[in-house]
Amino acid sequence: MCRSIKTLRPPALPEEATEEDIRAAALQYVRKVSGFRAPAAHNQEVFDRAVDAVAEATADLLAGLEIRGAAARRAG
């Protein structure tokens, strides 16, 4: 869908995704879906709320994923 959005879970990302990583991915997603790189002033609030919601959903998803072998890789 959007080539600018990178995979944020291990092993694609060697360490845990930062809040900045998550927010950047959310922003790229909302830009792609809305078709706006920077929304007009009258759309800024809804655009920002969408970025916040996508970032929160992404953080929840990443926190809930169980990556097989991740504990073994961290211990090794």
Short structural summary:
The protein is mostly helical and 76 residues long. The protein has helices at residues 19-34, 44-64, 70-75.
Give an overview of the whole structure.
This protein has helices at 19-34, 44-64, 70-75. With 76 residues, the chain is mostly helical. The model has no long low-confidence stretch (mean pLDDT 87).
Layout of helices and strands:
Blueprint: H1 19-34, H2 44-64, H3 70-75
Helix pairs in contact: 1-2
What are the main properties of this structure?
76 residues, elongated, mainly alpha
Q: Count the helices. How many?
A: 3
* Number of E-type strands: 0
Give, in order, the helices and strands.
Answer: HHH
Termini Cα gap: 35 Å
Oligomer class: single chain
The average pLDDT score comes to 87
Coarse morphology:
elongated
- The stretches of 5 or more residues where confidence is low (pLDDT under 50) are none
Major β-sheet profile? none
- The SS-based structural class is mainly alpha
Q: How much strand content do the residues show? A: under 5%
Percent helix among the residues? 55-70%
Q: Which radius of gyration do the C-alpha atoms yield?
A: 15 Å
